[in-house]
Amino acid sequence: MATGDDMIEFTIKNNMVSSEAIRRFKRNIPIHELKNQLELITGAQSQSMKVHVHDERGTKLFDIDDDSRTLGSYNVQSKMILQVEETNLKRAHMFDDTGDVPKYELTNEEYESRKNTARQFMQEHKIGKYNPTAQEEHTRKEKEKEAHEQEAASKININDRCEVSVISQPTKRGTVMFKGEVHFKPGVWVGIRYDEPLGKNNGSVEGKKYFECPDKYGAFVRPSAVTVGDFPEVDLEEL
């Protein structure tokens, strides 16, 4: 039987669905076998899977990319995050189209008029966001998170080549075109011109231009999702 020291606990996330799981693996498990187990957990195929290791705050540390090695041969520790990326884009986005799913939406006024709701219970018993102490803790954590984003942003410069790793999305390469505050969300953001049309805009949001790029090549991400380095453009002819 494996002892506690022989096991490593990870949070498992992937770009197929937004849910996550916590699993423990033996240190001596071969990487090819680890990928087979991750396939059962995430639905990403082991043959087209990339495994990225992040720390508890979500900062990418390194990739697990050598099937001949064991998990313990990498500098992994419990509580780290295994971000599983399905590189087959057709499979990665197979759950994205929810246009045919009927949705029922209740207005805030309609919800407030109802009796014995979860919101009323939480308000009466000061639970969650209705608990002043919990709200203070939430505010503190948000400030710590933003400080982490500011620190990550300080290491990013305009025209840096980079890789972008966003949860539930494939890793993308591009060039940093903008860094700073934006009008549509609080905090510091990084504007990326992707090498491929995998973005959401042309460097503009709601009519405000932040940088120039072709349509569908631009995106805004948090600094913690950006890793700068020597990332040449992918040669599509080699794929």
UniProtKB/TrEMBL annotation:
Pfam families, per the entry: CAP_GLY, Ubiquitin_2
Keywords: Chaperone, Cytoplasm
SUPFAM superfamilies xrefs: Cap-Gly domain (SSF74924), Ubiquitin-like (SSF54236)
Annotated GO MF terms: alpha-tubulin binding; microtubule plus-end binding
CDD domains registered for this protein in UniProt: Ubl_TBCB
Subcellular location: Cytoplasm
Keyword Chaperone: yes
Main localization, broad class: cytoplasm
Cellular component, GO annotation: cell cortex; cytosol; microtubule plus-end; nucleus
UniProt GO BP: cytoplasmic microtubule organization; post-chaperonin tubulin folding pathway; tubulin complex assembly
Gene3D superfamilies given in the database record: CAP Gly-rich-like domain (2.30.30.190), Phosphatidylinositol 3-kinase Catalytic Subunit, Chain A, domain 1 (3.10.20.90)
SMART domains noted in UniProt: CAP_GLY
Chain ranges of the CAP-Gly domain: 180-222
Family stated for the protein in its record: Belongs to the TBCB family.
Stored PANTHER family: DYNACTIN 1-RELATED MICROTUBULE-BINDING (PTHR18916), TUBULIN-FOLDING COFACTOR B (PTHR18916:SF85)
Protein name: CAP-Gly domain-containing protein
Native organism: Adineta ricciae (Rotifer)
Lineage: Eukaryota, Metazoa, Spiralia, Gnathifera, Rotifera
